Amino acid sequence: MSKYASLLSAVAIGALMISAPAGAQDKMSSEKTVNVGGAPMYPSKNIVQNAVNSKDHTTLVAAVKAAGLVDTLSGAGPFTVFAPTNAAFTKLPAGTVDTLLKPENKPKLTAVLTYHVVPGRLTAAALMKAVKDGGGMAKYKTVEGDELTIKQPSAGKLSVTDAKGGTSMVTIPDVLQSNGVIHVVDTVLLPG
Q1: What is the pLDDT along the chain (192 residues), one digit of tens a residue?
Q2: Is the pTM of this model over 0.85?
Q3: Which long-range contacts (CB under 8 A, 24 or more apart) does 4-11 make?
């Protein structure tokens, strides 16, 4: 993000805080937040309202906008989002992101993004319980339609395996949102 864009973002956030009623400011300051990409994620805000503030998710936010999914992910949900970082997107073959962001590839981009979304609010504890109850793995149908497989490779850690056999680790679990929960992941998940 350029210095100019960072400055505009800081000014906009400051203006929102100044213009917010005192009660809203007090509520936000008393919320239990998780820092993601250098910004606090507020449980009273929705997935999009929080994601736009994370410096680690600028590629994901740009992709969500290009796919026309902002309104969907701002909706009531609830959704569980496995949110790949900018570094996760750089693991894809060179040119993949630029190609997906082209208007003619919107259906492919939408499929990749909705493959990262599972209906419902699945916390890390709920995922770990499902893995234990499932004999070492749990499968979840995504909004895209394919399944993700969740495993617990070690105590307190979760991995997500996509339809192509690629594995991503959850690096920050339980980023609670008003319309669901985000689990930050280190690799982009790909549908079959």
Answers
A1: 443 333 333 333 333 333 344 444 444 556 788 888 888 888 888 888 888 888 988 898 888 888 888 888 888 889 999 999 999 999 988 888 889 889 999 999 999 999 999 999 999 999 999 999 999 999 999 999 999 999 999 888 999 999 999 999 999 999 999 999 999 999 999 998
A2: no
A3: 9/53
Phi and psi based region of residue 125 (left: phi greater than 0; alpha: psi -120 to 50; beta: remaining): alpha
- Which residues lie closer than 8 Å to 132 by C-beta, 6 or more apart? 152
Residue at 78: amino acid letter: P
CB atoms within 10 A of CB 64: 25
CA distances from 122 to 77, 104, 113, 152 (A): 12, 33, 18, 15
- Catalogue all structural domains in the chain, each as residue range(s) with its CATH number: 31-185 (2.30.180.10)
Q: What angle do CA 89, 90, 92 make, to 5 degrees?
A: 75
Written as six digits, the tokens of 131 are 């893995």
What is the rounded CA–CA span in Å between residue 158 and residue 119?
18
